[in-house]
Amino acid sequence: MTPDMVSELMRHLLREAMILAAPVLIAAAALSFLLSLVQTLTSLQDQSLTTVPRLLTVTLILLVGMPWFVERLVTYTQTLLTDLHRYLG
User: DSSP for the chain?
Assistant: First the structure.
């Protein structure tokens, strides 16, 4: 396996990881921003006001998006195993 093949594999792996993590991270960041804005405007400083909704949102996105996440992972794995002969020989 040449260094070019390794870098190609890593590039594809990191791309898939970013695609899979993006919906959860974007939703958590947007919700955190909105909750922080509300806390600032109302002068509430309780940490549970931001933690609980963020955890619930991330859990809901993971549960709703699980079929899509699994489908992407299965497709990536099948592609990787199908092209395995390219990398080994």
Answer: --HHHHHHHHHHHHHHHHHHHHHHHHHHHHHHHHHHHHHHHHT---THHHHHHHHHHHHHHHHHHHHHHHHHHHHHHHHHHHTHHHHH-
